[in-house]
Amino acid sequence: MTKAVLDIHEKPTVGQLITFSFQHMFAMFGSTILVPKLVGLSPSIALLTSGIATIIFLIITQFKVPAYLGSSFAFISPIILVAGLSEAGVAINPGNAMIGAMMVGVVYAIVALLIWKTGYKWLMNILPPIVVAPVIIVIGLGLSGTAVDMAMNVDGEYSGLHFSAALVTLATAIIFTVFFKNILSAMPILMGIIVGYIYSVIIGIVDFTAVKNAKFFALPDFLIPGVHYDFQLTGAIFIGMVPIVIVTISEHIGHQLVLGKVVNRNFIKDPGLHRSLLGDGLGTFASALIGGPPKTTYGENIGVLAITRVYSVYVILGAAVVAIVVSFSGQLMALIETIPTAVLGGISILLFGIIAASGLRMLVESKVDFGNNRNMVIASVILVVGIGGAAMRFTESFAIEGMALASIIGVILNLVLPGREVTEKDIYETEE
C-alpha cells in the first residue's frame, strides 16, 4: 500500500498548508460556483457556505474524515422548480429553495439518528442500486437540454460565436480529464472554465464593466444589512426537494467508501456513517440559513487526496478557510459573474453526462440483471417519469419535480414488487 505523505492527523508545515489548501480550493471551485450560477443564486454565498459546511462536517466527524463539502448538483432542477428563474437567470423566490434545503438537512439528521440506533443495513431495503442508479441517470439526462441550450443560444437565438466558446470549454475539460495524470486531472471543470473564459475574452463576448465598478472587499449578498429572502411555505417545496436525499445519501455513502479506500480507513465504522451523514446534513442546513445551496461531499477533492497522498484534515480545514476568505473578494466575485453562459454550458455538457454515466457505472458494478422483469420495470418507470416529467403539475399551484417523483415511485416499486431479496447487491458493503 502506498505510504501517505501526510496522514489524517499529521500537521503540515506552513508552506505545505498553503499549497495543499489552495489545491483543494481550486479543485472544488468550478463545481461549487457553477451550481449557483445555474440556479440563480449567489456564487459568493455558495463559496462562503462551502467553507462553513466543511468546518461543521470536520467537527461533527471528530476531525477523522478529510472530506470537503461543495454545492450539490442533484438539487439543480428542484431549486429551479421551487425558486423559479427570471429572464435574467436570477432566482425569483430563493427563500423557497432555502426552506427546502433546511428540510433536507433535517432529513439527514433523522436518517443519521436511525443509523446510530439501528445500524445502516436497513438503507439497503430502501436505496438499492436498481433505484439509485436510474435516478442518478435522470439527474444527468434531465439537465442535458439545459446544458445544450446554454452552450448554443443567447437570448433564445442561436449564436455561433458563443457556441465556439462552449466547444473550446468542453474540449479543454475533456483533455484535462483524459490526458493529464497529475493534480490538474483532478480539476478539469476549473481548467475548462479558465480556458473557455480566456477564449471568450479573445473573441469579445465578455463584459468587464461590473468588475471595474466592484469593490475589493464586499459582503456576500445575504450578509448585506437589509437583504433577506422571502418564502412561501408550500407542499411543493417539501415534495420537490426532500425526495432527492434518496440520491444524495447514496452518493454520500459511496464517497465515504471510496475515501476510506484512498486513506486506508473504514469511515462507515469510525467515526461512523451516522456522524458523516449528520455532518453533511448540518452543513446543508447551515448553508441554507445564509442563502447557500445544499451541500455534498466532493469527489473532486477525493481525487486530489488520491493524487497527492496528503490526507491531513488540517489541509481540508485550510481549504475551507481559504474559500471563506475568497468569498469576500468583491472583484473576484464580479469576475465570476462575467463568465459567459456558453462557457457554463460547455462545461455542463461534460459534467451532466458524467453524472448520467456514473449511474450506468453503478448498474454495471452492482451487476443488476436486466433479464429480470422486476429490475426492468423499476428502471423503466424511473427513467420515463424522471426525464419526461421535468415538473409534473397536479393542480394550478402544486407541482412535483419529475426527478423527485421518480425517486419516490422507484422506492415504492422496489418495496412492493416481489423478488427484492435476491436481485440486489449490497453496495454499502465494507471490508473488515
Would you identify the regions where 5 or more consecutive residues have pLDDT less than 50?
none
Strand proportion: under 5%
Mean pLDDT comes to: 86
Helicity level: 55-70%
Strand order, main sheet: write it out.
1-4
Continuous helix count:
19
What overall form do the CA principal axes indicate? globular
Provide the domain count. Answer: 1
Q: Calculate Rg over CA atoms.
A: 21 Å
Question: Could you give the distance between the termini?
Answer: 16 Å
Total beta strand runs: 6
The structure class reads: mainly alpha
Write the H/E string, N to C.
HHEHHHHHEEHHHHHHEHHHHHEEH
The largest β sheet comes out as: 2 strands, antiparallel
Q: How does this model look, in words?
A:
- It is a single chain.
- The chain has 432 residues and is mainly alpha-helical.
- It has one domain.
- The chain contains 19 helices and six strands.
- The strands form three sheets. It has a two-stranded antiparallel sheet with strand order 1-4. A two-stranded antiparallel ribbon has the order 2-3.
- The protein is globular.
- It starts with 13 loop residues before the first helix and ends in a 16-residue tail after the last helix.
- The model has no long low-confidence stretch (mean pLDDT 86).
- Belongs to the nucleobase:cation symporter-2 (NCS2) (TC 2.A.40) family.
- It comes from Solibacillus isronensis B3W22.
